[in-house]
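Weekly sync, protein design subgroup
Attendees: M.S., D.O., the rotation student, P.L. (late)

Item 1: inverse folding check
M.S. brought a backbone from last month's batch and wanted to see whether the design step gives back something sensible before we order anything. D.O. pointed out we never logged the input encoding, so this time it goes straight into the notes. Structure tokens as presented (138 positions):
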């Protein structure tokens, strides 16, 4: 369990995932990478100026979340944070491959999903396509 990748979307559920992942990292002495993906906007009716503004707001929010995580985990020597833009599940999977993660940790739900579904679409896509172990935290 050398490298752990945590997918964080700012939700309560991903905050739980973060906590669990750090418990594991502490036990195994793992290095930790936290990734937040600013999602692509498919709202075609949006004006370009609105699209840019929304992307800026979301990126700013992701930055703040990552800064907060960095401050909170400053006791750990190897914590990296990454912000990407694109399709969340694809970017998480791509990053896991690139850094050769041994474990991906996600929350079961995110910011938008209905709790009645068992798993959110991002975490379920990650479980389906990951090449390493995945821990979905409820
Ligand atoms: N943009 C993102 N960047 C990083 N991780 C994400 C992102 N979106 C979701 N995740 C990860 O996936 C977990 C589950 O979120 P997901 O988006 O699958 O559920 P949801 O928002 O409840 O439902 P849906 O998005 O399918 O409507 C989150 O707790 C987080 O760990
Ligand atoms: Mg979501």
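Designed sequence read out in the meeting:
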């Amino acid at each position: 369990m050398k490298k752990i990748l945590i997918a964080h979307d700012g939700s309560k559920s991903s905050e739980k995932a973060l906590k669990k992942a750090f418990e594991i990292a502490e036990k195994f002495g793992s290095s930790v990478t936290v990734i937040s993906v600013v999602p692509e906007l498919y709202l075609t009716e949006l004006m370009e100026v609105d699209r840019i503004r929304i992307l800026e707001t979301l990126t700013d929010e992701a930055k703040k979340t990552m800064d907060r995580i960095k401050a909170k985990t400053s006791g750990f020597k190897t914590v990296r944070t990454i912000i990407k833009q694109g399709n969340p599940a694809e970017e998480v999977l791509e990053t896991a491959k690139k850094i050769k993660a041994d474990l991906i940790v996600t929350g079961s739900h995110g910011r938008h999903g209905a709790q009645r579904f068992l798993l959110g679409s991002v975490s379920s896509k990650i479980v389906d396509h990951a090449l390493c172990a995945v821990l979905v935290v409820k």
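Discussion: The radius of gyration is 15 Å. Helices lie at 12-28, 48-72, 88-99, 121-129.
Action: P.L. to compare against the previous round before Friday.
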